[in-house]
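Hi! If you just cloned this repository, the fastest way to understand the data is to look at a raw example. We've pasted two of them here, unedited. The first protein comes first, obviously.
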Amino acid sequence: MKALIKALNWLEWISAVAGGVLLLLALISLIVGHAIAGGSISSFFHAANSCFLLTIVLFLFIHLGQFKKE
């Protein structure tokens, strides 16, 4: 059970960092004036939003939900 909690905690941190990187790419794209990797600038914001939502759900599930750290 501790291995599952540890894996979910790692996934939470990875998702938070990925959301931060995507948000940084979106801000750079806004400053430059066009999307860095093609597509539209708003796609970076949508992807960052999804990563942050996953981070929030994992945080609530691990720290307030069924799995309590012992």
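Ok, and the second one:
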Amino acid sequence: MKSFASFVIAALTAISPGISHASGQLSFGITAPYTKVGGAAPLWNPSQTHAAVSGNDVYVAYGETTASGDEEVLVGHSADGGLTWDAGTVVAHGPSLVPTGAIAIGPDPLAPGAQIVHVVFGTMTDAYGNGTISYMHLRSGAWSAPVVVNVNPATADSGAVAVDGGGGLYIVWADATGIYTSRSGDGGDGFYVLGENVVQGGSRPSVAADSIGDQFVAWADDAGVWFSSRSYRGFTFGAPVYAGNGQKGGSPVLVALDANRMYIGYDWGMALGEFGIALSTSTDGGATFTSRNVVVGQTGHVGLAVSSTGVISLANDSSGVVVQRSTNGGATWTAPVTVASAGSEYPSLALASGKLVVAYDKQPGQAVYATKEK
């Protein structure tokens, strides 16, 4: 599954003439060649993180279907910041597996200086998409056995995962009644919380954590996008805070830069009404949010990454995969830059040494690819 590319794919294109542009927009420039990660199944839950980075090591969780019809979840690894990839490691397979996975990487709380790669995936147990959420990790060069982390039947493709600065692990998912979470303090060897309810109702949860272990969750419903948090000292989540724009919410992607600065990218609207892509931001730990429309009249799946200095990169697949950047909290944006041609979908973003890595499904069902900022 290793592939090398030979040409440049960046081009400027317009999405919404109503969006003002930040100064210095051409300093953006994603111009690295794209490379094939592998797989033949889409990264179809945008609320999940499908790409994770530690230093120059980039990991992408993806799926494929074998010739015999078996579904697989794989993890591809690049040791050069996303320019070349290994053949991918099959971490799970089975006829009812959901062929996609969520991924995170963080410190090993039991081995200072070491890192753990965490992967979450789902398995369907009925014809309605319900099933289990399973967890595995790569630690000291070996993959652990899968562990089921949900209690009640879950929406099998809804699992998401995050790690805090001390290696604490947080997994969220949705079921028919609400949003739930499981937590581990030893790097995923054991879970001291299984199936804690975050909120009643909602779908497509996204999860983040800060350096000290505060946990943050965003989700969507017919009213829009919502947010809740749990302090590392707390036992329960706070009351839900509305973070939307008054329209039906799609699949939110949550990034927590620290305990105060929250960013939620999401698609919104109805198929026969208004629709678009928005960013909601908070500077008070999620107590209040400011929502701004970034794209109006087009919609798509969203990818989001925020640098340590607060530079926001927002991707969508309304017409191929395009990325815009904001240096002022989302008030203004650069002109959109095309990083993958029309038909490419499901962008997932990460930062490698300060440069943006974009994983995406090229011509849905063909393969998962990646490109990196120049």
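That's it. A detail worth noticing about the second one: The chain is about 0% helix and 50% strand.
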